[in-house]
Every structure is written in C-alpha cells, then in structure tokens.
Model the fold of this input.
Amino acid sequence: MERIIKATENAFSPEANFINETIFHNANGYLGIRGALSEGTPEGCPSMRGIYLNGFYDIIPMPQAENLCHFVNEKETMLNVADTMTIRLFIDGEPLNMAKGKVLSHTRTLDMDRGITKRELTWENESGKQIELIETRMASFKEPSLFTMEYSARALNFNGQVEIKSYHITDVRNFSDPSDPRLASESRKNMYLLSLEKTDGCSVSVSETSVSGLRMCAAVSEETDFSGCGGNGIGDLLVGESEGVFSLRSDLKKNGRVTLRKYIVYTDSVRETDVKTAALSKMKAVRSHGLDFYYRAQEAFLKDFWNRSSLEVEGDDALNKATLFNMYVLLQSAPRDRFCSIAAKGLSGEGYEGHYFWDAETFVLPFFTMTQPEIAKAVLNYRYATLDKARENAALLGHKKGALFPWRTIGGRECSGYFVSGTAAYHIDADIAYAVVKYYQTTGDLDFIEEKGEEILLETARLFLDTGFFDRDGHFVINDVTGPDEYTCMVNNNYYTNCAAKFNLSWAVRLFRILENNGREKKVREKLKLSESELSEMEKASAAMLLLYDERLGINPQDDSFLQKPVWDFENTPAENYPLLLHYHPLNLYRYQVCKQADTVLSYFLYENEQSEEVMKRSFRYYEKITTHDSSLSTCIFSIVASRLGFKEEAYRYFGDSARMDLENLHHNSTFGAHTANMGGCYMAIVNGFARVRIDENGFSVSPELPDSWRKLTFHQVYRGSLLSLSADHEGTKVELLEGPDTEITVYGQKQRLSKGQCVYCKKV
Amino acid sequence: MERIIKATENAFSPEANFINETIFHNANGYLGIRGALSEGTPEGCPSMRGIYLNGFYDIIPMPQAENLCHFVNEKETMLNVADTMTIRLFIDGEPLNMAKGKVLSHTRTLDMDRGITKRELTWENESGKQIELIETRMASFKEPSLFTMEYSARALNFNGQVEIKSYHITDVRNFSDPSDPRLASESRKNMYLLSLEKTDGCSVSVSETSVSGLRMCAAVSEETDFSGCGGNGIGDLLVGESEGVFSLRSDLKKNGRVTLRKYIVYTDSVRETDVKTAALSKMKAVRSHGLDFYYRAQEAFLKDFWNRSSLEVEGDDALNKATLFNMYVLLQSAPRDRFCSIAAKGLSGEGYEGHYFWDAETFVLPFFTMTQPEIAKAVLNYRYATLDKARENAALLGHKKGALFPWRTIGGRECSGYFVSGTAAYHIDADIAYAVVKYYQTTGDLDFIEEKGEEILLETARLFLDTGFFDRDGHFVINDVTGPDEYTCMVNNNYYTNCAAKFNLSWAVRLFRILENNGREKKVREKLKLSESELSEMEKASAAMLLLYDERLGINPQDDSFLQKPVWDFENTPAENYPLLLHYHPLNLYRYQVCKQADTVLSYFLYENEQSEEVMKRSFRYYEKITTHDSSLSTCIFSIVASRLGFKEEAYRYFGDSARMDLENLHHNSTFGAHTANMGGCYMAIVNGFARVRIDENGFSVSPELPDSWRKLTFHQVYRGSLLSLSADHEGTKVELLEGPDTEITVYGQKQRLSKGQCVYCKKV
Done:
C-alpha cells in the first residue's frame, strides 16, 4: 500500500482549497502549518491561514452573559503565530494568483513515507506566460522546531523575469466566526512584536502574548539555488518594521528554473528560557545539516513509525488508505513533550480553539498506547503536570477532595464557557484514569504508576467519592453530571459516567495494591494523606455503583429519566437541520430522547463486562435509532460495539463513515481542522473492533472477525515492549513476535507464548 | 396610623445614605428618582444616582461565553436618563459637602399621605457658617411626567452670599458592578444627546438611545422665591453643550431664606410621537397650574389610594408602618399605561436592570387586583401587548404552538443570559395565566377576557400542551423545566410547575366556556384557529397532570429526583456564605436538597386544594428545614402558608422578615433598589395569610386568624366594584360595604349578602 494522498484540481475551487488546507497541513506534534496557498488565498475565498505551536496560547476574556458564582470568565486560546509560509511569485512583475489566469494542472500530494507535502502547479498568467511551480513542505519530526519549504519555479513558454518573494509576517490574527460556537467568536490581536531583526542572515522575530505573557520566536533563513538557470539571479533579505522579505530575482530563459529553500525555526517560552538564543542556535544546526539531512531523517523516522503501526487491509484499498491517513494525522498531532496534549483538531486548524478534551485520552491515546507508548506517556505526563489546576477546579465546584480535570483546556485551566455541557461532564476524570490503567496494562510501566499514575487515579476517584453518595437502597449514585451525549445534560446516574466512575474507583485501589505488593506505595500514600478507610470507601462505592437497567425494555437507560422522555420527531426533521445543535435550542433537545453520539453504547466498548451480551444488543439497537451521530466521536464507537456484538454489516458501515470523515468532509467542517478523536476511533474500529484486540488485567487477547469484503488484515502492535505482527483472514490468525522479550498472548481464547522471531497460527474457533 | 417614614442621621454615614437613596426615592409608576443627595454624593462614597422612565430602555449586547443555538445575545436595559436632580449650594463660594464641615441635624421624611419626600438639614461649613436646608421632592401621580423639587436655604448664623445652582446634566451612565450577577456588568454610554436648548425659559434636552432608537426629552424650568430675604437675589439660566445650569444668587442676612422651585418634565418616544413638543406642552400646563396645585392633587390621589388600600393593625405599629411603606412603594412602582410593567426593583434602583419578572404577576399584582384593579389591568395589558414576542420566543425554543413569556424583559423580548435558571422557568406562563384568572374572578371583567385574557390563557396552555406529554401510565408530565427554586434547575415534573400548568390548562378551557355561554368566544376561537379537540386535550392534560407525592415521607417532592439528593450541609456552612448563590457554583447547589425560596410551598398557597392539609403540613416542615430564603420572594410565602396551616408563630415570624426587608436592609442589597415582590408578598401575608382572604370561582371569602400580639386588623378591599371594609379581632370579623353594588361574601364559611352602607359581624367558628 502506497502511503500517499493526492488531490488534483483542474481549476481553482475555493471550497476544495479550503478543505485541502486541512488535509495537506504539515505538523510534527509541536508545529502545525495549515496547507494554505503560499502566495495567499485569492480575495474573497475562504481560508484559515495559520501556523500553530502546540501548548502555546494566550488568555482571552470570556465574559458570561449572566455571571454566576465561579463561572469561567477567561479562556486559553491557541494562537496563530508569525506567518512564514507566505511566498509570492511574480512573472515580469505580475503576481501568481490562482483566481486569475489559467490553472493548467494543480496537484497536491501528501507523502506519508517521506513526511512531506508537495504542490505541483502549472499556471498560465493573463499574458499567456506559463510557469511550473513545485513546492515541498515539511514539518520535521527530527527537529520539531523546524518547518521547511522548497519552492521551485520554471519558465515553461517564455523568457522573462521571475521574482520570488519570501515573507516573514509578524502581524497576524486568529480566525473567527461569531456564528459558530465551535470557533473563536471575535477577531483579536493576541501577539505583540517585541523585536524583528536581521541576524546571522536570518530574519528573527520575537513576539509576546497579551495576557499569558508567553513569548515565541520565529527565525527564517533562505537559500537560493540558481543552478537551473546558470547562476543567473540575486537574492536579498530586507527586514522592516513588522515584516521580513527575502527577494529572489532571476531572468529566466524558457525552461530555466530557480529554487528557493526556506528554513523556519520556531521556539517558545513554554519550553525555552531565551526563545531567541534557542531559535538561533537551532537554526545554526539546521543550516549546517542542510535540507537533505532532514529529508532523510524524516524518512527514517517514518519508517520506524510505520513499522510499529503497520496496518494493511487486503481487499479494501480505499478505506485502508483513509485509515493510514488518519493514523498519520494522529502522529502529526501528538506531542512528545509534557507541555501539551492532543487537540480536538490536532495542529490542523483552529476549530475548538486548539483545546484538549477527553478526545485525547479516550479516542486518540489508545492508538499510541498500542504502537508508540512513549507518546501516550507524554500525554499522560501533561495531564499529571496539570493535576494541581484540576484540584483547584474541583475546589471551585465545591468539592472537599479530589481533582476535576477541565473539560477543555490548553494550559490546564477550565476553558468551558457553558458548564452544562462542559465542566459538568465529570466523566473526563474517569476517562483519564482509564487511559492511565490501559497504559499500565499495555506497557507494564510501574514506574509511571508510582510517580504519577496512581496519584491521578486516587485524585479522580476521590472526586467521584465526593460527588456521589450511597442512597437509601445502598446504591452509590452520582447526580447532576453530563455524560458524553451533549443532547442530554445534567442528569442523574448517567450509565456511562457511573460505569466509568466504578472503574476509576476500583482501579485506584487495585493499582494501589499492586504498588503495595511491590513496596512502592509509600510516596503516594504520604503525599495524598491516604487512609485505608478511604480506600475501602472507594471499593465500597465501586461495588455499589448504580448501573441503571430498565426491565421493560431490557436495556440500560442513558440516565434515570432518559426513557421517560418522548423520542425526538426524526420523521419531521429535515435533512438540512442536522447537526441538530446548529438548529435547535439545547433546552429543546434536552427534552427528547435524541443522542448526539454514543453514550451508553460507548460504555459497551470500554466497560464491556458490566452487562450481558443480550442487554448490550438490545441497547445498541435502541440507541442506534435515536443517535444522530452529529458528533464526530460517534460512528467509530458504534462500529466497535457492532463488531463486539456480531453486527458485522453495521460495523463495517459505521467504520466506513469514520474512516472517510475528513478525506470526504462528511461533517462539512473539516475546513476548520481534522477530527482527531474520530481518527483514533477509526484505528480502534479496526484493531479493537474487527480484530477484537483487548488488553486488560488478563493480558493481550485478539480474535479477529473481518468484514466480509476483506481478504486479510495485517497490523503491528507493541505490547509490553514487544513488537507483534498480527495477520488475520477469514480462517484464522497468524501472530509473530518481531522484536522484544518473550510474551504471552491469547488468540481466539487460547494462550500462546512467543519468543522473538517465533510465529503461531491459530484457526478461528 | 401616621403614614410617615423618617430617618435621622446625626453624622454623615455613607452606608445609611446609600440605603436611603432607595427608601426615599420618588416614583409614580412612570418616573423614578433615586433619593440621592441633590448636591452629589461625597467622593468615594457609594451611590446609585439615577432617574428612570418605566418601559424606556436601550438594547445592549450580551455575548454568550459559548454561544449555542438560539441563545440570547442582547438584552434590554433600563436607562439612567438626564440628571435633573442635581442642585448645589454654595456659601460664600464654598460648596455644601456632607463629608466636610459638620452635620448638625439631618432628617429625611417620606410622607405617604402627601406623596412627597422631605430632607431637612442643618449644616455648618468649615468656616463655621450654619445653614438650614429644606428640600421637598415629588413625583406627581396627577401628571406622571412631572417631578418637582423645592429647595429652600436659610442662613442661620451669618450674613453672606448664598448661591444655588440647579443642573440639567445630559451626560449620564448607568450603575455597574461586574462582580454582582444581579447588576449590569459594564459601564456603558447608552444615550446620545440630540439637542439641548433654552426654550420658553426652560432647558430642554432630547436624547436618543444607541440601539433601541428610543428618544426621551427632559424639560427643566426653575422658579425663584426671594420673599424670605426681601427680594434680594437674581436667577439666571445658562445652557451649554451638555448641561443647563440655573444659578440663583442672594446676599442673605442672618435668618434670611431663598427658595428655588424646580419643575422637571420627562417624555419618551415609547408613548409620544414628538417628545419635545409633548414635554413643552406638558411644561406649559404644569407652570400654569403651579406647584401647590400638584401638591393638592397628590394628596387627593393618595387619599383615594389609601381609602381603597387602607390597612391598620392595632398592636403592631412597627410592622403596620413597614407594611404601609411596602404598599406605597408598590404604588410608586406600578404603571398605569400599557407600555410597561412592574420591575423587580420598581423604579427605585437599577438592580436586575429594570427587568420585569414573574414577580409582577405573582407577587405584586394581587395587591392591585384587590385594591386598584385598573392598575392590575394595565399590567395585564402590557403582557398582552408582548404576546407576539412571546410566540416568537416559544418558536425559538422549538415549540410548534403557544407562547412563552420571557423570564426577564422590558420590551417583551427574552433578556435572560443563563437560560437554565431563566428561560427554562416555564412556570412564568402559568403565573401570568393565574393573574388573568384572579383578575377576572376579582373584577368580573369579562370584556378583558374576551379581548385579551382568554388569548393569553389559550396560548400559555398551548405551550404546556406542547412541552409536556402523556407518559406510559397516562400521566401528563413536563420535563426539563426550572421551578421557582433556582438552586435546582432543569428538572422533571417540578411540583409547582405542574400544579401551575394544570390550573392554566384547566382555566383556559373554563374561561372559554364562560365566554361561550355569553356568546363571546367567537373572536378568540377564530384568531387562534382553536378546535374542540384542542380544548379537550387541554382538559385531559390538566386532569392527568402528574403531581408528585412521596409515600415514604408523605410529602410532595419538588421534582422527580429532588428527594434522591443529599441534604445540603447546613451545619458546616458559615453564616457569611449566605446567600449561597454568591459563594457556590450552581452545579454544586444543584446537587443537593437546598432551596433558595418557596417552591412546593408556594403551590400550597396558589393551588391549595391539590393536597390534603396533612400532606401540606409535612411538606412545609420538610422544606422549611432546607430553605435558605436567599431569595427575597420566600419568607412572605412561608408566612402565608404557615397561616394557612395554622402555624401561627412561624407565620408571624416570616411576616416580620418580609415586612422589614427593605426598611432594615435584611438582604444587604436594598441599596440597589427595593424588593417589590416581597412587598406584594408582605401585603398578601396579611390579607391572604392572617385574614385568609380567598377569591376564586366560589366568590370572596375571609376567615381571619390574627397573630396573638395583634388586637385588631382593619383593611379595605375592592371586590367586583364594591369597596369593602373588613375588621377582625380575635373574636370575630366585621364586614361593611362602603361603596358599590350589593355583593355576597363568605365569612368564616358563612355566606353574607351586603348592600351599600350595610355591615355584618360574624363570630369566629
């Protein structure tokens, strides 16, 4: 399978161009660069031109229409930083403009093995002069501060002057749309230029944010290559008050070519003490290594990545490729330091303002835990670093103990402006706890548990202990929280939340006992002043947790009043009124049985042993009818649970919707960024869905059941330090231990022990 | 009982002064003038200097922190209009300043028979010169556009120049406090001056609001009186760019006096086409009549008012006077045209931004319905005038039929920024319907029902029919609404709301049948395209309404999950943490059994026949323990229901808290305006509480049971056009028909027929 995504346009399409800004963005977990046209988007055409640094934000006011006690009044927002992607081309003084002249051919390529995007354009200007432009962009995985551009122009049918102007623009703003709750509502200047100068042949800018007081530096350095035109050209850097411009001019003969190479280094004060010194030192190293070095390093990095994440489907090239694209975007989105996490849109756009949600731990992390656990660890380290802020948040909500992680955040503070479907979604605590447990079960990394993980588990368990209580009948009940489904808010005993809290409470104690058995519990016990009686309360609450069941329907109600409500009138809801959240007042939605996304159904994936298969089947059928999938987090989960319950056809259909979501813009908003949660869910739909991989206290198990149209599924997986290759067809599954220590895995319910280089084949039972 | 309130200060107290701005405000239902010091409040001292026109507002942005579909994004706000109350006094060039020199005596008086406030001040300046100042203010009931000031200064111990400068200041702003959700959060200029000129000896300003485009005019005219100093003085009006100043100068001998009379006329474009012409024409009439004419008219008006509202308690002077004060403020707050209603703070301050809530119909209106029904009718006319906006509001909330009145408004649009404890309080519809029914039952005004009342009843009934539905068991249930208690929001089957909706649905049909029996139903049937099946649905829903009852406790639960929650930890809540809403996040409050105010208990007053006395008694005792009375709407209701249930001691105690609320600033926020709902509730606590007046389909009944410490209670009441005097002691009740047609009333359960001048005495049974 060639890991390449291509988009070819025969004419300029503003809509396609807007989507392609997302699809062809470059990112490396730290830097994200939208795939905006380097010469600028033609006037009047939509564009979200932006470059983002993961974890770098400003704080902006978020006044509440009615400011009740402890409401959140300001929020963090991801910033669009200095625009260094702009390069303009002039033919005899006339600028390249996609909306003018004639596009003869235009192809964009994402090469996921080489880690680059490429744009190939043949364009004729209004005077009939044709030019070929080849532009390569890369966000380096080797050096996360580095973004590179290679820009090459060839005169196809004329002799004349070609000028290439490469910019470093410091006066930038964020994208805004007051009509869409998922975007910033106000255009606002958040960054102020402290200095812009020419140093070591680079233009170097240092800017500071208005409120958070963070600094960032951009250093830009250009190289010219006149070899394609016999050395005929000059290049020159001019640095003005707010812009640096490097101009390259060449008198080209027909077929003559000029090339500009642009090295761009970003640093920020979240990570560096002196952003300028750090940027210049990195730039020095970058220039001494040269572009080819980084191209090669990129390939090597990705070779390793794909080796650990390899996934091949025989019989379904399109969805295979779509899944690889999703995995690649996840890699682009995921941090490798403890200063940031994975935003809802990764680094591909400004949707949801760069905030981190439960999406990171619940939907995206499993992919990394199972293939690159060091990335999963970085994300969990980030959460741990914000634990004190989560404790403050819990105190603001009136809790005497525990930590409540924010529903949306960058730096760790709660940034939700509407607590009803934000802060009230307490399940985020249990979702993070779940990710910690799964990380431990997959890696066996007890050091992490001792240092950080158990503290997270205990503080989140404490929150649930403080939120819920034992009712008259001895059940542990949790009131006034919001589950995953945001079309029903502030309810009692949300089935998902209670399952999640049960797990959280139980595993807080279980992992504590594991530490204890290893003599490593002391630190966390002392730090948290933990008592045995508190642990036994946690066990008791977990055991007594109320998991609602409706006798009449034989299903799990989403919450204690959900089934009492009438079902939404789907028949009389016109297609253009979806997603419902953009057309109906929330109070209207709250009053009906209608789900934005998997809620109870999600619990059947994560907490599958709480119910019998029959109950889950009936529930699945019930919720399927009333779920709109208006949330991008929904179809992947429905696919996984359909697989689990043997609904093969549905599993494949939902998987298809999930796999193609961004490439085909199924939610009509991929323009604002990719849906990373869905991308992670798409991966899980294959690995946990079709292949039925489970990693839990009983170890690693797999029992694939492929979609009928698939001939074979092969994927790699990292379990307890060993790299496994699993290959399944309709008859059976082959497992090979490619690297690492001996390991035991369960295939179709049968335990198998493997050493390096060993291979077992098990027939389906 | 002398109807006079006095406040004497021996020294200047900024706190007392701030409260007195409310207590001694002047208003007549159209104009409201805070009792701020005419010379200005000393620097650094708190003050809410303002003049308000009922129903005159601007529209200001109210951006939502997270803007979900159909959230309200702008709101109406009552404006502080041109400051015409400012009068400064100079003794030999030195200004009067309460914070300097020495206050020798300072008394403020509210004379509720003459309808004026008076300030008497003896003050010594830093040079030892003593002056006596007597200032009388009046908001005329005869001419609602008119505010007058009489300002008289006497030299007590010196000969010297006294200058009085009278201002007309057009550059004004509203009060703001970003930390208090009950006040505007931002200081904002909402009015722009169109013209300021000298015409007919007046200064006349015309201003326009920024967004609503409403205009207002202020005309100010001064009269001088130098008779107290032998004609020694001059007066002169200067009109500048944004201010008019009338200066009066006089060289006073010891004991000499000068007097300024100031006529101020306000008009607005809500009511007048040409505000300036209207103001000048009114001013002409005012000046030709002169001040004494209006003083006499004021007395005559109030004589009639007190005759119809007379209320005397023997044995409790203090609370009697406090109640009279409350009634007087209600009169000051109540409109007599259809352009406005009764704001939460009346016209006494900017708390809640001048918005009208359910307070108007549920708490204040009964006083007027029972004493001055033409005022009640004006308020109901106002609601009818906004019915179309209520229909639009219902449509925004997704209702296919019906009208949803706004939770807070001035011009009729929803101005609630937090719908959870705003728009979701659907009971406001039923509260308005209830007021219509009570108005009809008290007055017999079928014309109003035919023209407007029945349309309101049907449209509100339709809303409940569309909101609720018949559940599996055949009950009619109403989900996701907020009851009166704002510490518990968005619940199912709120007991109060369901009772109220039941009444609304039932009476929509009953009054329709009454119209039908009189051949007067055609208009409303056609206008609303009303079908018989719709009417029978209403009857069915009303009959099947779910009114929750808890078998275990034998009480009515506030909603379907209320009793499942733990009780708030009152023991560990420090006194300074009340009101809870200023110290705890709402999500925290929602999770406990804790009530801001009467909720289920209120239904035992308004819908007293739904439960047995035993159930109500147990519920009362239950809710009493968990109600904080953080809302000013609470104690009056607890008093009434305690009376109803025979809890005499509690009834009297709650009544006392209600009666003294503003005069003694019990809620620590009377500075921002008086609590009109409580004032109406205080009246009801006597008339409907102690005297047990009921007016319903069975007519008028009364069966007084006085507090032990009272010897006698005498009050007047207007019922079906007849003025009754009721006089009760511990033995029995005397009823006299003072004016109007023969009428039948029920005393202690026994029917009595009365003709004019007739009197019956009934002994208690």
Remarks:
- Chain B touches chain A through 50 residues (CB under 8 Å).
- The mean pLDDT of chain B is 96.
- The radius of gyration of chain B is 27 Å.
